[in-house]
Amino acid sequence: MKATAIAPANIAFIKYWGRKDAKLRLPYNPSISMNLSACTTTTTVEFSSDFKKDMVSEGFDEKRIIVHIDRLRKLAGVQLRAKISTKNSFPTSTGIASSASGFAALTVAAAAALGLKLGELELSVLARLGSGSACRSIPDGFVKWEDSYAYSLYPPSYWDLRDILLIIENNVKDVSSSAGHEGAYTSPFFTKRLQEVPKRISRLEAALAKKDFQKLGEVIEEDCLDVHHVMQTQSPPLFYWNEKTRQVIRAIKKSGLPVYFTIDAGPNVHLICEAKDEKQVIDIFGNTYQIIVNKPSRGARLC
Ligand code: DP6
Questions:
Q1: How remote is the CA of residue 159 from the centroid of ligand 1, in Å?
Q2: Most-buried pick from 127, 234, 267, 276 (CB within 10 A)?
Q3: What percent of the chain has pLDDT over 90?
Q4: Alpha carbons 164 and 287: distance in angstroms, whole number
Q5: Is residue 200 lining ligand 1, measured as CB closer than 6 Å?
C-alpha cells in the first residue's frame, strides 16, 4: 500500500484571505490561480502493519500532516500506520505556497496508497481540508476555487505565461497564513474587499478569455495590494513585505516592461510576464536574488 505523487504550488491572481468556516477551510471569496511548474512537492505515502507509529520526513508539520492522513484513513476504513516521505523543489515556509503543493501531493498519494478511487473534484475537496490553497493545486493549469472545490479554467498550454519568482528570504516566516486567515475579518477594509472581489474575478476572467495581458496584470496587482492592505490593518497586523520586496517593485515599475508583481504571505515576489519578456525581466535583477522560473503547470498527479 504505497504511492507517490507530485503536485505544483500555485500563485493566486485573486487571493484567498479569510475563512467563513475555519475548520472546513471554506473561503469568504472565490480565488483564481496558476499552477507553478518549478515549485513542486513530491510525496510518498506507505501504509503498513510493520509500522508501529506514523512517521513524517523531518522539517515538515507532522501534526497537521497526520490529521490529514487520519481523514483519509477514516474514509478508507483503514487503521494502518503510515510513513510519509516528502520533499520540496523550493524553500519551505517562505510564503511560497508549500502547504498547497504539500497537501495536494499528500492527498493524491495517500488516496492512491489506500486504494480510494476518487475523482478530481473529491481530491480537491479533500486537499482543501488540509490547506485551503491546496485545492487549487489538484486541477491543471489556470484554476478557479469556488466555495468547496477548485476546477480548471484553462489547461497549462492555454497561455505561455511566466511566474519569475524572486527568493528574497529563505527564513521561516513569522506568522503562518493559517493563523493570518483567522484575523482577516478584523480589518476595517475586509468587507470592502469582499464587495470588490466579484468584480475583480469578472475582470480577470475576461482578461484570461481574451489573453489581454495588461488587463490581467493590472487586476493581479490590484488584488495583491488589496490583500496586503487587509493583512496590515487586521488585528494583530501582519507585515509580510520587507525593504527588498519594495525595492523589487520599484525596479520593475521603473523598467517599463510589461511585468506585474504579486506577493503571498511572505516577502518573496512573483513577477508575472509573458514568455517573450522572460529574459529581460530576469536581467533586471542580475545575480541579486535566487530566481525560480515557472511556467503554467499540470495539477497533482501520481508518479
Ligand atoms: C496569501 O492556503 O496557506 O497565499 O488554508 O490555512 O492552509 P490554509 O492557508 P493557505 O493560504 C494562502 C493564502 C495566500 C493567498 C492564496 O494563495 O490564495
A1: 24
A2: 127
A3: 89
A4: 14
A5: no
